[in-house]
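Lab notebook, bench 4. Still working through the backlog of constructs that have no structural model yet. Next entry is a single chain of 328 residues. Request: give me the C-alpha cells for it.
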Amino acid sequence: MKNKPLGVGIIGCGSVGLKRSNALGPRGRLVACADRNLSSAKKLAQSGPVDAFDDWKLLLERIDIDVIIVATLHDSLTAITHAAINAGKHVLVEKPAGRSVAEVKPLIEAVKNKNTKVRVGFNHRYHRSVQKAREIMDSGKLGETMFLRARYGHGGRIGYEKEWRAIPEVSGGGELIDQGPHLIDLSRWFLGDFVDVQGFAHTYFWDMEVDDNCFMLLKTETNQSAFLHVSCTEWKNLFSMEIYGRNGKLDLSGLGGSYGLEKITWYEMTKDMAPPNTISWEYPMPDNSWEVELGEFYDDILLDRDPSPGLIDALEVLKVVGAIYSES
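Model written out:
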C-alpha cells in the first residue's frame, strides 16, 4: 500500500467536494464519487476515469476504495460516516461531523471496533499562518498563553435565508454551527479544553429560524479565555485571531481570496516593555491547506496513528455549540 495511491471515494460533490478532489495529490486516486444530484457527481467525475453515482452506498461496496471523504450537508454527515466505518473504510468527514453531541458519540464507539481512521475536516488548522502560530507557540517564545480573541464572518447573498444553512433540521443551527466550529476548534487547539462556556446566539438581520451572530466567552480550567464572535452579517468577509502570551502577541488575519491576504505578525515583548520587536509573514500564494491536511490523513493511515483533529475534537466543539444553543 505504501507504493500505491490510496483509492478515494467522495460523497458530496459540491464546492468542498471539488476542493477535496483537487487536493488529493499523488498519494490519493479518485475512484468514484456520489451526490444525490447525479449531474454534480458526473461533473466531478470529469477529472478522470471516475465513476459517478447518485447513491452513496455503492461507494462503500467498492474494494478499490480505501478512503471515503464525506462532504455533504450537516444532516447526513454522521449516517454516511457511520456506514463507512462499518464498511471498513477510512473516513475524512467535514466539520462539524454532525449536528450534535448525540450524533457524534456513536461514531466514537463504532470506530473502536474497526481498524479504520476517522479525521474531521477542521481545515483551518492547516493554513500557513495558523501553522506558523503553532510553531511559535511550540517553540516557547510566546510564553504561557493567557487568552485569545477572534472574529470570523462573512456577508450573505440574496436568498441566503432560504438556503440549507437556514433550515435548522438540515444545518443543526446557524452561524454558530457554520463558522463557529472553526474558531472553537482553533481556540481549543491553542488553549486546551474549555470547562466554562458562555455565549449568546441571536438573529439580527436575516429572516430565518437560525442565528446569524454568536458571541462566546470560553474558559479553560486555568482561566485561559477565548473571546469569539462569528457572524454572517459581516458584509465584508473577515478572519482575525489574536493570541496573547506573557512574552508577546500573535496577530493572524486573512485566509486568502475574499478574506484578504493571509498574514501573521509576531509582537515580541522587550525586557523594558518598550514597543515590541515586530516580525510579519505574508502568504500571497494560493492556499495549500487542503493538500497539507490530506497529506496528514494519508500519514495517519500509513503510519497507523490516531488522526488529530478527530472525532473527540468534533465532540468537544459540539459540546460548546450545544451549551450555547441551550442558553440562547
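Notes after review: Residues 200 and 327 are 7 Å apart (CA to CA). The chain has eleven helices and 14 strands. Flag for follow-up if needed.
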